[in-house]
Amino acid sequence: MSDHILFFGGGQHLPGLIRARSEASGRPCRVSVLGRIEGLSKLGDPNDYDRIVLLRADDQLEEWLAAAMAIHEADPVTHIGAISEQSQEIAAEAGRKLGVHTYDAETVRVVNDKYAMRKRLAEAGVEAVPYAAVSGPADVLAFCESFGLPCIVKPRQSTASRGVGVVRSVDDAEAAFARAAAADETSGIVAEAYIPGAQYSVEAFSEGGEHVVLAITRKYSDPVSMVELGHVLPAPLDAASQEAIESHVRMVLDALGVEFGPTHTEIVLAEHQPRVIETHLRLGGDDIWQMITGATGVDVVDLLMRQCLGDQVLADLRAELAHPARTPRSEAIWFAGAPENGVLVDVLGVDGPHPPGVTVEASAASGRELHGLENSSSRLAKARAHAEDPAQALALAKEAIGGLRIVSRYPPEHLDLV
């Protein structure tokens, strides 16, 4: 009997891609998805799956486990995967209930809780960035008095830069706390020291607790909202800085108990000392995993498929990265932000013309309400570019976004008609 992979969550097309890869490799597997109703549109073609079961986002864990058990009884599940942070805790519990190997529940909890992550890394002696749970603006001010300005305030559990704010003066504390609370009212809020320095993300793949770095990406964030504006890989780093970042990320993943699969770890390089912003048990977003394939030739989806089916993949991954015939190239992406208010009418210039190696795509439909750069979903378009070196790729992507024209209108309630 062939393998049956049950994926929890459907935020990307990866389950469908993995099924396609398995068929192309001569090892066809069945793929089921147990996800949330609002994620259906992001699954792509429903025919790519053997079954899709959707629940409401507010359904209790017991209902998710009952649905997983029903799928397992109808078609025994041999492997479990999870696409997003919101699904990993459920996947871990389902794996335990079904007797199928998957994420360790404690690792998922610590990785996805920014307060717990800081605590674990400090206890393991990996790094000690000041942090504290805060329950109101007064707590934020007390943290600033103890550790200085600026500081970061964010939900303990959130993604896509939702609710993240920088407190640069005491006057910012109330607004920063309100922003974090509005993004996540249930998990709590954490304040942590702001670490100045260049920001990077480290894409790694793990197996048996061993970690191989696929790529280091230089990332650029908005200084106010901390929403990511762009990425370029490989990051322009000297050999010593690259080794320091790779070594630190391996220690972080060890301390957090990461055993297998892809990870996306965000780092600040402060005076040649890497410090973690956060990490995730998944591929990097913002097209980073596609950019890795373009830059290195490593097919990350194939790695995922093979590991899901029980293969050992790190030896092949190392061989691919070291292949003498490989011709590395640089990849970059840049995003268009949004006006502070209004309603989107159109994004003009998406169809170009653009130079060779540049593609532009709008990511927002006409009629969207605009509220500035609140989170990653606020961005209106993206430009991908590849070139021989990072600086050239980044310049091409920025130039393409700079050539767009954002057309918006004010809704009637914003017009001051006299």
Structure summarized in a few sentences:
The protein has 418 residues and is α+β, with helices and mostly antiparallel strands. It is built from twelve helices and 18 strands.
Describe the protein's architecture and organization.
- Keywords: ATP-binding, Ligase, Nucleotide-binding.
- This is ATP-grasp domain-containing protein.
- Pfam families: ATP-grasp_4, LAL_C2.
- The chain is an alpha+beta fold.
- It contains 12 helices and 18 strands.
- It has an 8-stranded antiparallel β-sheet, with helices on both faces.
- Helix 2 (61-74) crosses helix 3 and helix 3 runs antiparallel to helix 4.
- The protein is globular, with a radius of gyration of 22 Å.
- The termini are far apart.
Mean pLDDT: 91
Order of strands in the sheet with most strands: 13-12-9-10-11-14-17-16
Strand runs, count: 18
- How many separate helices? 12
Which spans of ≥5 residues are poorly predicted at pLDDT below 50? none
Report how far the terminal alpha carbons are from each other: 74 Å
List strands and helices in order, with pairings.
Layout: E1 4-8, H1 14-24, E2 30-36, E3 51-55, H2 61-74, E4 79-82, H3 85-98, H4 105-112, H5 114-123, E5 131-134, H6 137-147, E6 151-155, E7 165-167, H7 173-183, E8 189-193, E9 198-207, E10 210-221, E11 228-233, H8 239-256, E12 261-270, E13 273-280, H9 288-296, H10 300-308, H11 314-321, E14 330-336, E15 343-348, E16 358-362, E17 381-387, H12 390-402, E18 405-409
Helix pairs in contact: 1-10, 2-3, 3-4, 4-5, 6-7
